[in-house]
């Protein structure tokens, strides 16, 4: 069994075992468990009932200011309220951030506080699917004060904010990477392990769509790809700058009539340090979501760790199989990368690299970002095998277009915004 002695990220104030034991047991904690949640009065944001999309997806013109959706205003307003109430471990808005000069503009953040106040844990990295373990920290132990609202599909065609029972919640990440960093925890009382299913993935896509802001992304880390808690959750935050992965050119993969009938286009990244697949389009939100969820389930069943980035208001999804933890356990990662203590999860792979040492931040370069992410990527041969698994499981045909699209079909329509804001500092 491959294991790494790892320090767990603190995602909730109740993750500290000592703090948890000092709280009153049972309903007195006002937690998200069966003892408290069914009787709670947490409000619900209900998304509109699914209807058949026109097939035309709105792409934000990022060269112009876009008004925030009422949903994103609500989410960020509630997040700021929790900040004022002192529920975060540190003030992430004080962390230095810069754009690294170079082709892609990797984003470096100095977050010296994020590795503090963590408890050691033994974490298996050789199994993507592992059973839920109630004896370890999970989100039913989170206090309801960390929850912003519940998030679920409504029964009508309008999005609205109302109060009724729902098992899916949006909560703060008390160790945030960026402004508005939240967790989407589907069906929290079901105690689902960290594994993708069609229903939960669709909910995550709706979270990105409902935000209606191309700078609000949703991410997922599987076990073995730096998920730190084996309780189903997605992460999301707002960062007002294009991600490097969103600017990478792509090469389309021919997938046959089955996906074409759904309007889903599958491509692979080209000239980016991590190999991955890109899903976009779809005749409906469900078409795109089902295509990606099916691919994720295939990876899970083949014990292949992966990360997912839901981008461009839920119209593009990046699927990124990786092997960093396995290489680390086998002693195959360079000492330079190990010394930096960077865990390359979905945000790092997408180009937002969180650094824990000032010297790494000061010396950050595009060459370093490439060296780091190269340790994450599957080899070309292995990636081709993984693509074949996915296409065979889904019954798709696989072929490649020799044309690399780096303009009109570039992943990120945000590339038009070359007057990118330099965030800092």
Describe this structure in words.
This protein is of the alpha+beta class and 425 residues long. It is 25% helix and 21% strand. The protein has eleven helices and 18 strands. It has helices spanning 17-22, 70-84, 198-211, 256-262, 285-301, 324-329, 335-340, 346-350, 358-362, 366-374, 380-394, and strands at residues 3-7, 44-47, 96-99, 107-110, 120-124, 147-153, 160-162, 169-172, 182-185, 216-221, 234-238, 250-254, 264-269, 277-281, 306-311, 316-321, 352-355, 399-405. The chain has a 13-stranded mixed beta sheet with strand order 7-2-6-8-9-11-10-15-16-14-13-12-18. A hairpin with a 7-residue loop joins strand 3 and strand 4. The longest helix has 17 residues, at 285-301. The termini are far apart. Residues 1-8, 17-26, 51-64, 117-122 and 407-425 have low confidence and may be disordered.
From the structure above, extract its key features:
single chain; alpha+beta; three-stranded mixed β-sheet; 425 residues; disordered N terminus; disordered C terminus; 25% helix; 13-stranded mixed β-sheet
What is the string of helix and strand elements? EHEHEEEEEEEHEEEHEEHEEHHHEHHHE
> Which structural class matches the secondary elements?
alpha+beta
The shape is globular
Low-confidence stretches: 1-8, 17-26, 51-64, 117-122, 407-425
Strand tally: 18
Compute the average pLDDT: 82
For the largest beta-sheet, the strand count, sense and barrel status come to: 13 strands, mixed
Largest beta sheet: what is the strand line-up?
7-2-6-8-9-11-10-15-16-14-13-12-18
Round the Cα radius of gyration to an integer and report it: 20 Å
Total helical elements: 11
* Approximate strand percentage: 15-25%
